[in-house]
Amino acid sequence: MRKFIGLASASLIAFGAVLAGAAGAASADPHHPGDRGPRGPQRPIANVQIAAIQYDSPGRDTGTNASRNAEWISLVNNGRRAVNLRGYTISDRANHVYRFGNVWIQGDGGRLVVHTGFGQDEGRQLFWDSRSYIWNNNGDTATLSGPRGRTLDSCTYRERAGRSRVIC
Fold it and tell me: What is the radius of gyration, based on Cα positions, of the chain?
């Protein structure tokens, strides 16, 4: 009986070691956000997200280009590497769609802003070139999709008195 208990105990210990090793290997994968590697949490290689939306430009909505450009959406890359956003899109519930060209967003917290109105794309400031407002003051949903159309992130907001911006 003692031999059987010893053999069963050894088997369970070996099985536990295999499981612990598999769990440790899976958790060290740098492609899965929040996973832990040998040095603690690992940041993903790329992780582009919606950071904020200025959905109600300051002052009265006059419809001017300056007023439309005071309405914007910003993205952040919390991953380690820069990402080319070619083929990515931003859209709202009314299916207004902004398509990125050959635009890079830096890693490690790199940010860029897409203004609603017309302007000259430069650095981290891009322009939707829309003749009307995109983001509804009473609430909307912004969706960031990758080059194959897969939703990467979304941000929904509702109207709140005294607010004109949402942090996503």
Answer: 23
Report angle CA 23, 26, 29 to the nearest 5 degrees: 150
Residue-wise pLDDT for 120-133, tens only, equals: 999 999 999 999 99
CA dist 30 → 35, 75, 105, 151 (Å): 7, 22, 20, 21
DSSP-assigned states of every residue in 58-75: SS-----HHHHHTSEEEE
Over residues 127-151, the pLDDT tens digits come to 999 999 999 999 999 999 999 999 9
Q: Does the reported pTM lie above 0.90?
A: no
The enclosing H or E element of 146 equals none
CA distance 41 to 60: 45
Strands (E), the chain: 36-37, 40-41, 48-54, 72-77, 83-84, 89-91, 97-99, 104-105, 110-115, 125-127, 139-145, 151-158, 165-167
